[in-house]
UniProtKB/TrEMBL annotation:
Lineage, highest ranks first: Bacteria, Fusobacteriati, Fusobacteriota, Fusobacteriia, Fusobacteriales
Location(s), subcellular: Cell membrane
Keywords: Cell membrane, Membrane, Transmembrane, Transmembrane helix
Protein name (database record): Permease
Coiled-coil ranges per UniProt: none
Length: 323
């Protein structure tokens, strides 16, 4: 019974029953698309609300100031690991990247460690994890989180080895932001923070969800399975590379691209190809590059994009081989 509830079998059957009673032919492309859309919208919103609340409560213990304090005390590879892991529980949108970058550099945190955080943070967050969990199951969601963390660690460490500090704009090192007081929240304040985060995140991304699920529904019902399987399937050696390159200039978030990835995978596209597209869209979005240009020079942006892009391609090929 518990498995039935959490696998959303009740929602699948309920959606089918309602559509049949409305006269929708469930064997048609239209019926399949409508079922996909309704089922995914309800399922994702339920999972999203529950998990955002739970993770936001945990996140209330990791403010930007506290994250910076933790990283200031570490060094070497250990700092990269910590930065990447903290990126999971302290996800910030791309609009936060510039002040976050300045705050970390001003706090004396090495450049590579800062990038370990910035790589992992947009790729792995509670919203992406819960939608992956509900869509593909615990195994795929776990692999995705692990890949995002490893990508952040290795990418940031490589930037550290290359010693690219000279490509940070000079004024960043001259900024003195001062000490920020770390406020200790009560249990009630943490619960209020979690509730407000649910309202904020769901309110901010529901449009992306509807668009992404709508595109996924169209692909699910109408996209030619044979063509997608042939050109974007796991047997095509260039599929992952093309998916990553196409995704880089796009602007979306994981929540909007996961339903598209689900529909593509159902049509025969390789798991790694679809997830590489999703990672590249979130980690290398054009708005984030524009914002980062305010604090780092074009060559460092190019290195960051190249390292992260190659890492995503490698993850995509690995996923296609093992899943």
């Amino acid at each position: 019974m518990i498995k039935y509830i959490f696998s959303f079998g009740w929602l699948d059957q309920g959606t089918t029953w309602i559509l049949k009673n409305l006269g929708v032919d469930m064997g048609s492309r239209f019926g399949g698309s409508v079922h996909f859309f309704i089922y995914d919208v309800i399922k994702i919103l339920i999972l999203l609300s529950i998990m955002v609340f739970a993770i936001s409560y945990i996140r209330s213990y990791f403010s930007v100031e506290k994250t910076k304090k933790i990283l200031e005390k570490m060094g070497g590879l250990r700092a990269h690991i910590a930065a990447s892991l903290l990126g999971i529980v302290t996800p910030f949108c791309s609009c936060s990247s510039v002040p976050l970058f300045i705050g970390f550099i001003e706090g004396g945190i090495p450049l590579g460690v800062t990038f370990s955080f910035l790589i992992t943070s947009p790729i792995v967050n509670e919203a992406a994890f819960v939608i992956l969990l509900g869509t593909f199951g615990l195994k795929i969601a776990g692999y995705y989180v692990l890949a995002g963390v490893v990508l952040g660690i290795l990418g940031g460490y490589l930037i550290h080895i290359l010693k690219l500090e000279r490509y940070v704009e000079e004024y960043v090192y001259e900024i003195k932001m001062g000490e920020s007081q770390i406020r200790v929240l009560s249990r009630r304040e943490r619960l209020e923070f979690a509730k407000s985060n649910v309202r904020e995140i769901v309110g901010r991304i529901w449009k992306y969800l509807l668009i992404g699920i709508g595109i996924g529904a169209l692909i699910h019902g109408w996209a030619p399975e044979e063509i997608l399987s042939e050109y974007a399937g796991p047997k095509n050696p260039l599929a992952v590379l093309f998916a990553t390159i196409i995704a880089i200039p796009l602007y979306s978030n994981a929540m909007g691209t996961i339903p598209i990835a689900e529909a593509l995978i159902n049509k025969g596209v390789g798991m790694g190809t679809a997830l590489a597209f999703m990672m590249a869209t979130t980690a290398l979005s054009l708005p984030e590059m524009i914002l980062l240009r305010k604090v780092i020079k074009p060559k460092l942006i190019g290195v960051f994009t190249g390292i992260t892009g190659m890492g995503i391609v490698a993850v995509g090929y690995l996923f296609n081989m093992i899943i």
